[in-house]
């Protein structure tokens, strides 16, 4: 029998395993986890709109000084060099590393600004209760671009550059580095404070048409548990459930094209993995950095750079670079290949592990850009004329291709297919599952 639900009950589907989930509103600071795969599907933040507005204003005020003021000065051999973030990118451009320059420019400068201004505009409009159709479009762009902005990776790059040069030159810090650190802290806090559900619902409620899906229409009884089996599609951007008759059309809430599963997920993920494998070889075998010392060039590969840190006793830094530059790309390629090629066993335990592995792969990808950021800083901060100078070398371009293609591979992979292959769960249930776990998040 189907019981009448009160208006506080929400329905959604898990974006990682497609399980239909019903939940009642949680207290602020708590999250709802998918009872099947553990994915965080809903999170409640107190005063999210006001806090987002305040943080994004602060972020925007800090942005210009963080990007344009000098970060630090390196002094050595009577020479001194200071640099800001923009100069470190221009240096790649001047040396014909166009792809690397574009990738650093987008991930460290352009996307962070687009995200900050976008979320400022949205939260300011929602705070003043002014709604326009453009809000959904802007928030959709925000959700798409979020993982491509990498200011926190750049900050780690700054730290590693400082540790690397600590023994060989005098380092002076400038206001830029403090503004940039503050900007990173604000960006990180912002991503945890935005109550995505609330934002989407507020944007949606302002729209003229607001159809609520009713599960009472569906036959209960031997109902399967995935959204797809119930004839529903989850929007991958705003997480709205729509009837599957809308497949191939735009989401009624955010406009993103709806698909029951990501189209051509297997073939495009395989294609991107093969691309990464092809470029992984030159990225690791060719030199990524050239140090000219007294006119004599010394080229080093990624691995040489890591060995250098171990020789100098900086084990932690050596390990971080090793993890970011070698372990992460290899792990992503091997991990996605395993996810794509293993269909059995179908035990829920293994499916859960595989879904967890997918989430980890999607999370760590961006940290591979670390070495590129370090080289961008070194090449502009260490330019002491004839004595010593540091330049990027060809592997930098190939490495950027590896990072981008593995990140795209994680985006095109659809973890729900792993659950589909194994069919519906043995225990068919009549109603959407209530979450079994709540997690305190703050
Ligand atoms: Zn799930
Ligand atoms: Zn949507």
List keywords for this structure.
single chain; 442 residues; alpha+beta; four-stranded antiparallel β-sheet; three-stranded antiparallel β-sheet; 14 strands; 52% helix; 13% strand; globular; binds zinc ion
What can you see in these coordinates?
It is a single chain. The protein is 52% helix and 13% strand. The chain has 14 helices and 14 strands. It has helices at residues 48-68, 85-94, 98-127, 134-145, 151-165, 175-193, 196-206, 265-285, 302-311, 315-341, 348-364, 370-381, 395-412, 416-421, and strands at 9-13, 20-24, 30-33, 40-43, 72-76, 79-83, 170-173, 232-234, 241-243, 289-293, 296-300, 383-384, 388-392, 437-440. A hairpin with a 2-residue loop joins β10 and β11 (296-300). α8 (265-285) runs antiparallel to α13. Residues 1-6, 214-224 and 426-433 have low confidence and may be disordered. One zinc ion (ZN) binds at residues 235, 237-238, 240, 251, 253-254, 256. The site of one zinc ion has 8 residues, from loops.
């Amino acid at each position: 029998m189907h019981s009448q639900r009160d208006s506080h009950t929400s329905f959604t589907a898990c974006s990682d395993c497609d399980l239909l989930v019903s939940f009642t509103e949680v207290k602020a600071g708590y999250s709802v986890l998918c009872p099947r795969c553990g994915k965080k599907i809903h999170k409640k933040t107190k005063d999210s709109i006001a806090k987002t507005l305040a943080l994004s204003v602060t972020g925007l005020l800090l942005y210009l000084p963080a990007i344009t003021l000098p970060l630090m000065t390196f002094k050595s051999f009577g020479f001194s060099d200071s640099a800001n973030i923009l100069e470190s990118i221009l240096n790649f451009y001047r040396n014909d590393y166009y792809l690397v320059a574009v990738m650093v420019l987008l991930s460290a400068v352009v996307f962070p600004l687009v995200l900050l201004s976008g979320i400022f505009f949205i939260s300011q409009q929602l705070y003043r209760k002014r709604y326009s159709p453009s809000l959904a479009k802007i928030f959709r762009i925000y959700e798409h671009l979020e993982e491509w902005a990498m200011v926190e990776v750049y900050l780690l790059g700054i730290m590693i550059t400082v540790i690397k040069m600590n023994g060989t030159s005098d380092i002076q810090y400038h206001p830029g580095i403090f503004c940039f650190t503050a900007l990173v802290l604000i960006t990180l806090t912002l991503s945890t404070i935005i109550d995505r559900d609330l934002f989407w619902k507020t944007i949606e409620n302002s729209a003229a048409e607001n159809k609520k899906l009713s599960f009472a229409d569906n036959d209960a009884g031997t109902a399967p548990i995935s959204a797809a089996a119930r004839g529903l599609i989850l929007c991958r951007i705003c997480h709205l459930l729509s009837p599957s008759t809308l497949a191939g059309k735009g989401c009624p809430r955010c406009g993103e094209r709806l698909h029951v599963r990501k189209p051509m997920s297997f073939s495009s993920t395989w294609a991107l993995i093969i691309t990464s494998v092809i470029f992984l070889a030159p990225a690791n075998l060719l030199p990524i950095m050239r140090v000219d010392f007294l006119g004599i060039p010394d080229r080093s590969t990624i691995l040489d750079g890591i060995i250098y840190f171990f020789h100098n006793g900086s084990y932690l830094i050596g390990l971080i670079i090793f993890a970011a530059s070698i372990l992460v790309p290899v792990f992503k390629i091997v991990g996605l290949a395993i996810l794509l090629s293993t269909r059995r066993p179908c035990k829920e335990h293994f499916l859960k592990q595989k879904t967890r592995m997918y989430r980890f792969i999607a999370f760590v990808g961006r940290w591979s850009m670390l070495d590129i950021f370090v080289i961008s800083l070194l090449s502009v901060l260490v330019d002491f004329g004839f004595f010593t100078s540091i330049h990027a070398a060809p592997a930098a371009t190939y490495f950027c291709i590896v990072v981008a293609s593995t990140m795209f591979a994680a985006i095109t992979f659809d973890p729900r297919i792993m659950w589909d292959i194994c069919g519906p769960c043995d225990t068919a249930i009549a109603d959407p599952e209530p979450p079994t776990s709540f997690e305190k998040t703050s």
